[in-house]
Structure formats: C-alpha cells, structure tokens
Specification:
The protein is α+β, with helices and mostly antiparallel strands. The chain has one domain: Cytidine Deaminase, domain 2. Helix content is 31%, strand content 23%. The radius of gyration is 14 Å and the shape is globular. The termini are far apart. The structure holds tetrahydrodeoxyuridine.
Length: 134
C-alpha cells in the first residue's frame, strides 16, 4: 500500500470518527487520525465535559489511542472539521503532538475537502521538549 493510499484511509477514518465526537456544548465535531510508521491508523475525536476545561481535543485523544496500541512512531496527523477553511491544532495539542514526533506532518482538512499540509515544526517553533529538562 502506498503512502497516499494510507493517507486516504486515514482521512476516511478521521471523517468517520468525527461523527462519534461528544460535543454537546460547542456542537463542533472534530476527527483526527494518526498514521504510524507501518501504516497503522489511530483515531480520536473530541470529548467535551460540563466542566468545560476538561474537554479533550481529537488530536490528544488520537495520541492516547496510538499510545495504548503501542505506537509512538507517528509520521502524520490528519485532522477533519466542518469549517470553511481547514483548522490547525490548538496550542495544547501542538505540544502533545510534538512529544510524539516534533517533525510530523499535519494534514488539516475540511469536510468539503479543502486541505493544507503543514509541518508540526512550523506550527510549534522553538517548542519546549524533554531535551530542555536537566
Ligand atoms: N477541538 C478539537 O478537537 N481539535 C482542534 O484542533 C480544535 C478544537 C475541539 C475542542 C472542543 O470540543 C471543540 O473543538 C470546540 O473548541
């Protein structure tokens, strides 16, 4: 299977899991799919809470799923939301994604099919990492 086949599958998986988002407060459904080095796909959706600050974004849910599956070798994060222009991960998710792989690609897409490919290194320049710890 080619890399673009895997990306197409990941995009489909992110679009599907988006419908499982629990977002009764914002009604804003987000799906994410992480691609690992063997072409495995790990999905997540946003999960909101009545205590709003406890909301988990789709990207962080996908990191949790990949980690639970034993995969940290993530190369691409695919993101899907229903917006006129593609959204990019929030600051907290950029930091969590960077812990996994600061050089991953982030493929930001809309339900209508608009897409922009970014590098996490550009989304989180000069980020804090384990390398800064004494
Ligand atoms: N959200 C995500 O899941 N990912 C993003 O990249 C942006 C925001 C969620 C959090 C919250 O449930 C809703 O979208 C509105 O902010």
């Amino acid at each position: 299977m080619t890399h673009s086949d895997v990306e197409a599958r990941a995009l489909g998986a992110a679009r599907d899991v988006r419908h499982r988002a629990y977002a009764p407060y914002s009604q804003f459904l987000v799906g994410a799919a992480l691609i690992d080095a063997r072409g495995g796909i790990h999905v997540g959706c946003n999960v909101e809470n009545a205590s709003y600050g406890l909301t988990q974004c789709a990207e962080r849910a996908a990191v949790t799923a990949a980690t639970a599956a034993g995969c940290r070798d993530i190369t691409v994060c695919v993101l899907v939301a229903d917006t006129p222009e593609p959204i990019t991960p929030c600051g907290a998710c950029r930091q969590v994604l960077a812990e996994v792989n600061p050089d991953m690609d982030v493929l930001c897409t809309t339900v209508e099919g608009k897409a922009v490919r970014l590098s996490l290194a550009d989304l989180l320049p000069q980020g804090f990492s384990r390398h800064h710890l004494p």
